[in-house]
Design a protein that fits this description.
four-stranded antiparallel beta sheet, alpha+beta, disordered N terminus
């Protein structure tokens, strides 16, 4: 037989043989790259029913087969009954298939009721469904920042609380997050301290804050269930009441000073006005005194005033000035001719 084939092979061009071999190798590389045979073998060995053409269809739909088949293998080994089509649909919707499957396995082991549709909805809502299941089994402690509140006696208290919460899977979709829990706890601390008559009451019974805050139902509408609220630390801050009194006294002093300055300015203005009025009257008196000699001269020229009348008037003026000097009154200026 070899003697028959040898002449035939001798007639084939070696270049054509090399080309055929290269084409076959390229075809096999492309085939095994596009068709995940190894993944199909792993799925078949794990009891997952998935066809080769189904894997090729995933490639065509731009779905990474490993992201679907590997979680399916994991779920099958865990005893979960899932559909490859549903896993692929969740992947195409932008979900994390591996995290959803891990959450379902963890929920099954912990005895937490969680189905596939609910876990997909939680995952697509942007929450970590696996972390939520783990938090349901192992509660999380949320530490609040330092919260300042003022009692009725004006003393500031600075408190820090630790809130132990457990995830509520039924409220993960649409429920508020950790920020809401912290804000509500802070509001409860401020309310409790603010309603206390003395800061000493809070320092003696810090558990009163926990009882008051827990009684308000702060986990309503949130994705968590509050198990306990523990006051980790309470410190005494400023004496805000005394500081407010000091500030009020300082403000009253400034108001009084401003009013006194206003009254002083009004008194100075009134004094200046009175001085101006006196100077105006003096000017009028001087002006009138300047007209007296002119009137006397006019009376002399018209013959209405004689020499003896003038001397009698001068004697009366001199007698008046003497009496004023004796009485201590201010003398007036004698009229001039």
């Amino acid at each position: 037989m070899f003697s028959v084939l040898t002449p035939v092979m001798a007639e084939i061009d070696p270049v054509a043989i090399i080309a055929i071999v290269i084409a076959a190798i390229v075809f096999l590389i492309i085939f095994f790259t596009f068709v995940p045979i190894g993944l199909w073998i792993s799925a078949a060995a794990s009891g997952v029913r998935v066809g080769v053409f189904q894997l090729v269809g995933m490639r065509i739909r731009k779905v990474v087969p490993q992201r679907i088949v590997n979680p399916m293998i994991k779920a099958t080994k865990a005893g979960l009954e899932l559909s490859i089509n549903k896993l692929e649909a969740h992947y195409l919707a932008g979900g994390n298939v591996d995290r959803v499957v891990n959450a379902l396995i963890a929920a099954q082991r912990a005895g937490i009721p969680l189905d596939f549709e609910q876990s997909c909805a939680i995952d697509l809502a942007g929450r970590d469904v696996l972390n939520a299941v783990q938090m349901s089994v192992n509660p999380k402690v949320i530490e609040t920042p330092i919260i300042a509140a003022i009692a009725k006696d004006g003393i500031e208290l600075r408190a820090k609380a630790k809130v132990t919460v457990r995830a509520n899977i039924d409220r993960l979709v649409g429920g508020a997050g950790e920020e809401t829990i912290i804000a509500r706890v802070g509001e409860g601390i401020v309310t409790t301290v603010g309603s206390s008559l003395s800061h000493k009451d809070v320092l003696e019974n810090p558990d009163s804050i926990s009882r008051t805050v827990l009684g308000k139902g702060l986990d309503s509408g949130t994705a968590f269930e509050i198990l306990s609220i523990d006051i980790a630390d309470v410190d005494v801050g400023r004496n805000v009441g005394a500081q407010l009194q000091i500030d009020q006294a300082e403000a009253d002093k400034r108001i009084a000073q401003a009013k006194a300055e206003e009254r002083r300015a009004m008194a100075v203005a009134q004094e200046q006005e009175n001085k101006a009025a006196v100077q105006g009257m003096r000017a009028k008196v001087i002006e009138a005194e300047a007209e007296v000699p002119q009137a006397i001269a006019a009376a002399f020229r018209s013959g209405k005033l004689g020499v003896m009348d003038y001397y009698n008037m001068r004697n009366i003026q001199a007698d008046t000035q003497m009496r004023e000097s004796i009485g201590g009154t201010a003398s007036t200026k004698a009229p001039q001719e």
